[in-house]
Recover the amino acids of this structure.
């Protein structure tokens, strides 16, 4: 069982936080690395595209899930 850990990141000049299980956080780091971007840049991208009012932590989890389900070169 993975504990949920609260993390902070600076995006667009302000600090924001999200809470993720370690497995999701590691996958998010891996995706950022594969896309040759920082974790903060990836979180900012996901934050910009999530539906208004949607929870950032949930949006991050859904992004990871979609990434893992999609084929990548």
């Amino acid at each position: 069982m993975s504990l949920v850990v609260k993390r902070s990141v600076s995006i667009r000049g302000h600090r924001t936080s999200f809470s993720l299980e370690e497995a999701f956080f590691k996958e998010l780091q891996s995706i950022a690395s594969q896309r040759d971007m920082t974790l903060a840049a990836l979180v900012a991208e996901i934050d910009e595209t999530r539906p208004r009012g949607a929870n950032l932590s949930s949006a991050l989890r859904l992004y990871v899930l979609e990434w893992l389900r999609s084929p990548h070169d």
In short: The radius of gyration is 12 Å. The longest helix spans residues 56-69. The mean pLDDT is 93.
